[in-house]
Amino acid sequence: MIRNRDALETDDSHRVALDCIEAAIAAAAPETATESAVALDGETLTVGPTSYDLGEYDEVVIVGGGKAGGGVTRALETILGDRLSGGRLVVKQPVDVSAVEWSVGDHPLPSERNVQATAELLELVDEADDDTLVLFVLTGGASALLSAPTGDLTIDDLQATTDRLLGGGVPIEEINAVRKHLSELKGGQLARRAAPATVVGLLVSDVVGDDFSTIGSGPSVPDETTYADALAVFDRHGVSPPEAVREHLEAGRDGQVAETPFPDDPVFDRVQNHLVGDNGTALDAAADVARAADHDPLVLTSRLRGEAREVAKPLVAVAEEATVTGSPVEPPAVLLAGGETTVTITGDGGQGGPNQELVLSGALDHDGDAIVAAVDTDGEDGSSDVAGAIADADAIADRERAREALLANDAGSYLSEIGATIETGPTGTNVNDVVVIVVPA
């Protein structure tokens, strides 16, 4: 899975770290997760704890998108067989599915081809009636891939808004509060368009805490945020939206544009959402691998968040405490954490992403011999083409150069120079980031 593993596996501690990362990504594979959550027995389709009688529906269609959308759909095609009528996906990479049509879109910024593909998906949703079962596949990356600008907004408005919010280090749940109010399908509006069809959401979470309304900006989930909340995001973080976006949000705040549907809206009477996979699944698999390697695993959290370079410091501090005192875990040990850190771009915007910044910051700050590794489970850290990085304090020979790179948001360049980046290519899944810290005996 890790293409440059031979170069990275320099000792037993590096081997354990890389094994944990591979296990975490494999456990989050969308096919595996879907097959564990969905089953068909005769005409009874079971999704999690809920059963659906397929005999009550004339059509069963799949719609949705995201980086892991192809894997979820492949599993559903295998399970449903000829009971599946068809469908439409918007994905980042070509996918191997047969009954469902798909289009490739762009990420992390929405594009015109995303808008066109989403329009075709919404045509299928609009055709659904009370004899239709809509299986709505939603995974990480869908917020950008499923793009349908509302009102007079353009794709340029969406791109500029997303770019400014990401560059401002705004947390994903706040970014999505804005996206919901600039869209024709986010924030429960897909459920509104599909009514009176039965909608079954199959969600693979890429957000901290697995809040259904935040995953993919919640197209099938009630929205409790408002236009006023969306405007407050820009003010709180000192980010200026495009003028057309501000005008649209102000019009909504003033009651001139309808709000997204709230939890008591009847459009959700025939909607149920199910979590298929999340970050905890990945961390549990990594812990199993650590245990098999005679390392005591400790999962610190699956809700990691904050500025990547700052989040790294308390994590390596726990590793130092373990080395000196044997608390909170006795070495040899593996500390595990997952979540979604952010980067506020203050430099010229060099190479890298949150996971590379976390690793470089951790290696610089660490007073010990622990191995720090971090990856984005989708295989692409930020806007870079590597999954993350792995390093220890000894790997950072030129500390002044490393600090300069970190301050310039150019961690990727330095880590690439010292051969510390982890390369997987697109993995076909996305359940946030995984951090692995190996504390040797």
Q: Which helices and strands, and how do they pair?
A:
Elements: H1 5-8, H2 12-27, H3 30-37, E1 38-41, E2 44-47, E3 50-53, E4 59-65, H4 69-80, E5 86-91, E6 101-104, H5 112-127, E7 132-138, H6 142-145, H7 155-167, H8 172-180, H9 189-194, E8 198-204, H10 227-237, H11 243-253, E9 271-277, H12 279-292, E10 296-307, H13 308-325, E11 333-342, H14 354-365, E12 371-376, E13 388-391, H15 399-407, H16 411-417, E14 421-422, E15 433-439
Helix pairs in contact: 2-12, 3-4, 8-10, 10-11, 13-14, 14-15, 15-16
Are there runs of 5+ residues with pLDDT below 50, and where?
none
Described by strand count, sense and barrel closure, the largest sheet is: 6 strands, parallel
CATH architecture title of the largest domain: 3-Layer(aba) Sandwich
Number of strands: 15
CATH first level of the largest domain:
Alpha Beta
Mean of the pLDDT scores? 96
